[in-house]
Amino acid sequence: MVHLQREENRRCSRQPIIAALDLGADNGGIVVDMSEGGLRTFDSYLLLGPHKAFATSANYFGFSTAQMTVDEARQKALENCNRNAQKKEACVVVSVDNAEVRK
Fold it and tell me: Is the pLDDT score of 31 beyond 60?
């Protein structure tokens, strides 16, 4: 029963990220088609500890967890995304502490 409840919570929590990834002009023009692997990574991120953030570009992502402050979580998520994107694409934070971030 707990597993089913966790799965339902995860499914509900995933909807804002799917919407956030398709913000287009509202998100600096970035439209993301995240792979299944990326979505699975986001699912894992949702289960991790407080003060966390998830950042993405059109083709890359990065996240941070267990940070002391929200600002640290945002900064580290952007650093991780930018490192993965290798300066090819701009990254933006789309989720902080499981809440959707809109620009």
Answer: no
Assign 30 to helix, strand or coil: strand
Phi then psi for residue 99, to 5 deg, are -105, 140
DSSP secondary structure string for all residues of 48-79:
S-SS-EEEE-SS-EEEE-S-SSHHHHHHHHHH
68: left (phi > 0), else alpha (psi -120 to 50), else beta? alpha
Q: What percent of the chain has pLDDT over 90?
A: 41
- Predicted TM-score (pTM) of the model is 0.59
Q: How far is CA 33 from the centre of its chain?
A: 13
Q: How far is CA 40 from the centre of its chain?
A: 11
Give the other-Cβ count within 10 Å of 21's Cβ. Answer: 22
Task: Tell me the CA end-to-end span of the chain in Å, nearest whole number.
Answer: 37
